[in-house]
Amino acid sequence: GGVLNPEAAAEANQRDDTATRAFSSTTIKSSDGKCLFINPQAGDFRENLIPVQLQDCDGSEGEQWDIITKGKHIDQQGAMLAVSTVTQGCLNFDPRRAAGDQVILFSCGGRADGEGQVTNSQEFTFKDGENSLQLSPISNTGTCLVPAGAKLGSAGCTGDASQLFKLG
Question: Which one, of 121, 36, 116, 16, lies nearest residue 79 by Cα?
């Protein structure tokens, strides 16, 4: 990671207090019970480009996520943002990045400086009331995030239980 600049990080990752949160400070667990986890110090000076990892759940703040279904960075019905409770950055899928490094935390709205509005690489399919789901980015229909060792990878959605994640 880079040397953190707290002012730049705060500007890039502002909490959306107008957002509708289906879940607050919840865990996202893979089918084998590992938690999605971020280390805020693993990114750049704005707390962007943080790798999203899988680890044994330990209750740390890096495992806490807000599931947002309405707000300034989401414009799709039937979609959600997964926002790190600790950094306020969004789960982001970028297939242009190298395999094993496509799932990162990035400023919600998709601009590093925090000025972005909406990017569909951060919107994932979601149905209200759902707590077991595939993490399927709106930007890549038919693609699901899947466990790949200690990281998340991507594969074609099959409906297989190994592609399901549990909220809470």
Answer: 121
